[in-house]
Amino acid sequence: MIRRLLILTVLLTTIVGMGSCVKEELPTANTPQSNFEALWQLMDEHYCFFDYKKQELGVDWNEVRVRYAKKLNPEMSSQQLFEVLCQMIGELKDGHVNLGAAYDLGRNWSYFEDYPRNFDTELIDEYLGKGNDYQMAAGLKYRVLDDNVGYVRCESFDGSFGEGNLDLMFDNLRSCNGLILDLRENGGGQLTDAHKLAARFTNQKTLVGYVCHKTGKGHNDFSDLEPEYIEASKGVRWQKQVVVLTNRKVFSAANDFVKCMRQFPNVTIMGDQTGGGSGMPFTLELPIGWSVRYSAVVFLDADKQHTEFGIQPDIPLAMDEADLLAHRDTYIEAARQLLIPK
Fold it and tell me: Which stretches of the chain drop beneath a pLDDT of 70?
């Protein structure tokens, strides 16, 4: 599966790169109007969620063009233009859609900014401890809690851990009654890293979703759906119950990890809805030199449903104020109660 995704990424990067070399297809003059038209057209031809965003948000991309064109002025400054363009792409409410200038990054982080955080860094430090109280497997921190429940803090899928790290970590946790995998605040990273970890929780090849990508300029020009599988790891695999803790900042590759874990029988997803971000992003450039990042590849779950706006947990949970005052993490304590043998 990892090899197939890498090949797909290379092919898509090649396709996008070829498209970006055809300069005459997009407006090239460095004027407010030209940059506006270039951004609108670039998104119109390459962005992959228009039908879904129209269905869920009522976004009509043609109407958006008309509305924001009225805000243009030939004499406007680059900062004023930047603000207008950021507002325009912000209509899509996509955390993968960014406009990058030397002085700012236009972004839409409403997927987590509009919701409770349900996470406290200081509390996590109390559970992990200090110094040598916890162990580290590259980017993963872990320890055995005093009730013999394993706790793993996974902050990112940034490619920092390998198969050897995972073997040693799961071997050290093998005597635990259950496992808490705390994914909160994980904003993503490498999809291959997420799948590498997910492969430790299944004993058989498992269908986890489908993928398709843009093949033309039309909003509905997509390849056929290709099934996405997780192959069981050849290394140490976890055989007991595991609780995955999520909040709204679980995004992109971390969101995909939750999508995969939902398909395994010994897994419970607990917490808040994830942040989503199910489109693989690519980058092109406007005449002014600003970079445009946009979603170009669609990943669906095993039921062929979108997870762009997040995944609901099996057990919804919110941080309790009384727990916070008592220096207790509501999420971790609820997971412990679920995992402790009755």
Answer: 1-24, 342
